[in-house]
Amino acid sequence: MIIRIHTIFILSLITLFAYGQSDPKPCYCCTDNHRQFDFWLGEWEVKNNGKLAGKNSITLVQDSCLIREEWISAGNAYTGTSYNFYNEEKDQWQQLWVDNQGGYLELTGKFEKGEMVLKSDEMTNRQGEKYINRITWTPKPDGSVRQHWETSKDQGIHWETLFDGLYLKIKK
User: Fold this and answer.
1) pLDDT for position 26
2) Which residues of the chain carry a pLDDT beneath 70?
3) DSSP per-residue string spanning 23-77
4) Measured between alpha carbons, how far is 65 from 169 in angstroms, rounded to an integer?
5) Exposure of 131 by Cβ count < 10 A (0-12 exposed, 13-18 middle, 19+ buried)?
């Protein structure tokens, strides 16, 4: 009788493990293209001209299909969030930035020559002037990342720097 109960218990455990375990979830965003912006992941202090500009938290969400940015400026209450993803259908990266002042920015682009380069479509400022944005993220050998934000008022012939940030990993 004890052997029979023991056998039933063992068979029950085998059945539980055999049928209770689901297959591993497929990774839809594990291609090399989807991982091109992973150098930006982490907790960062961001400096502009040697001064603290803010802190940025860059994380993978949605089963590694989305890179989420959470920005907090130093010295004021400006914050923003961006969502970044590789659009396989269009073979390009896309970013949507939204901040706490009602601002937004949509960018698209590619990882080329070791840099992520994203641009906006033509926009119009409050003075009625047309311009485009270009933001370039460059990973550095020391693990830091340079973010260079430029604008052009002549369809990309000349560029003016708006922000030149150096991302430094926060040591824990």
Assistant:
1) 80
2) 1-24
3) PPPP-TT-STGGGTTGGG-EEEEEEETTEEEEEEEEEEETTTTEEEEEEEESSS-
4) 23
5) middle
The residues that bridge with 52 in the sheet, in sequence order, are 47
Q: Distance between CA 10 and CA 72 in Å, rounded?
A: 55
CB-based contacts of 135, cutoff 8 Å, min separation 6: 107, 117, 118, 119, 147, 148, 149, 150
Q: Is residue 120 helix, strand or coil?
A: coil
Bridge partners (DSSP) listed for residue 43: 57
Going from the C-alpha of 152 to that of each of 1, 124, 126, the distances in angstroms are 85, 12, 15
Domain segments of the chain: what residues?
33-169
State whether residue 1 is helix, strand or coil: coil
Residue 2 φ then ψ, to 5°? -65, -40
Strand partners, 69: 58, 82
For 33-169, give the CATH class.
mainly beta
Tens digit of each residue's pLDDT (9 = 90 or more) over 38-88: 999 999 999 999 999 999 999 999 999 999 999 999 989 999 999 999 999
The number of angstroms, rounded, from the C-alpha of 10 to the middle of its chain's C-alpha atoms is: 47
